[in-house]
């Protein structure tokens, strides 16, 4: 019997189990806001972050964290042995909404010790030193970047990642063949386009998941994806209909920067 192989297998199994347990504790933490945990049934954070193969000692970039829904979980997950870089909209953005979002996010980070290992950088920056980051993640943001911004962000992400580094993407999923004009208008992006841009910048596709799929979502609504919860852009009009659909149908993609 090869005890060395058994020992190595046991160590790998225990390490994987412990990491999964740390992730579960981060997702289940009472430090998360109640309004955020209420979205778990639609966003499946434990399953999604497990699919992205994260470990608590990683340096992770969260691209465009918005109000910090996932930041709450990630900051808790890496607080002992890793670090988190939040790449947010610039304070000097020409859009008032983005400037306010950045300032609100900074306030959130400054007021809670949970975020002591979170560094904020500009989304349109180099993000981090070349080949220094283990994983990069983005959740429901590609539609905001369509065009040159998407190329710049994917390129800078590729540069910042270590060889073998992981890039996880969750995005509202458009039907195949949707035009660029309709993607920009609706907030839904085709898998084909997301994968095409990632490969253009050197990433290889590792895997796809249906963790965040929603077959009830037609991806065709009067005010685009914002018709659905949590935004409910139409307010009371057909509200029950859209609540019954739930949040959008989403692609969940895992890419990797090649090791050589």
Explain how this protein is built:
- By secondary structure, the chain is α/β, with parallel strands linked by helices.
- The chain has one domain: Vaccinia Virus protein VP39 (Rossmann fold, 3-Layer(aba) Sandwich).
- The chain has 11 helices and 7 strands.
- The chain has a 7-stranded mixed sheet.
- Strand 1, helix 5 and strand 2 form a beta-alpha-beta unit.
- Helix 1 runs antiparallel to helix 4 and helix 1 crosses helix 5.
- The protein is globular.
- The two termini are 36 Å apart.
- About 3% of the residues have low confidence.
Question: Which helices and strands appear, and what pairs or packs with what?
Answer:
Layout: H1 3-28, H2 34-37, H3 40-43, H4 45-51, E1 59-63, H5 69-78, E2 83-88, H6 96-110, E3 118-122, E4 133-139, H7 142-145, H8 148-160, E5 161-172, H9 180-186, H10 191-200, E6 204-209, H11 239-245, E7 250-256
Parallel strand pairs: 1-2, 1-4, 2-3, 4-5
Antiparallel strand pairs: 5-7, 6-7
């Amino acid at each position: 019997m090869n005890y060395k192989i058994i020992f190595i297998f046991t160590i790998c199994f225990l390490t994987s189990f412990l990491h999964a347990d740390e992730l579960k504790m981060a997702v289940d933490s009472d430090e998360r806001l109640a309004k955020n945990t209420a979205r778990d049934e639609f966003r499946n954070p434990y399953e999604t972050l497990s699919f992205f193969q994260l470990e608590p000692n990683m340096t992770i970039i969260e691209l465009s964290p918005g109000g910090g829904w996932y930041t709450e979980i990630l900051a808790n997950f890496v607080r002992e042995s890793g670090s988190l870089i939040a790449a947010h909209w610039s304070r000097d953005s020409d859009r008032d909404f983005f400037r306010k979002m950045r300032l609100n996010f900074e306030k959130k980070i400054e007021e809670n010790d949970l975020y002591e290992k979170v560094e904020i950088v500009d989304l349109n920056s180099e993000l981090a030193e070349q080949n220094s980051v283990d994983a990069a993640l983005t959740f429901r943001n590609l539609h905001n970047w369509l065009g040159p911004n998407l190329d710049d962000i994917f390129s800078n992400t590729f540069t910042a990642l270590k060889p073998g580094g992981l890039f996880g993407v969750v995005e509202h999923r458009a039907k195949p063949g949707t035009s660029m004009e309709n993607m920009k208008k609706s907030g839904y992006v085709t898998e084909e386009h997301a994968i095409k841009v990632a490969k253009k910048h050197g990433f290889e596709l590792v895997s796809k998941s249906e963790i965040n799929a929603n077959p009830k979502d037609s991806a065709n609504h009067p005010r685009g994806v914002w018709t659905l919860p949590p935004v409910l852009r139409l307010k009371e009009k057909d509200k029950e209909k859209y609540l019954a659909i739930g949040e959008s149908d989403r692609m969940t993609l895992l890419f990797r920067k090649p090791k050589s």
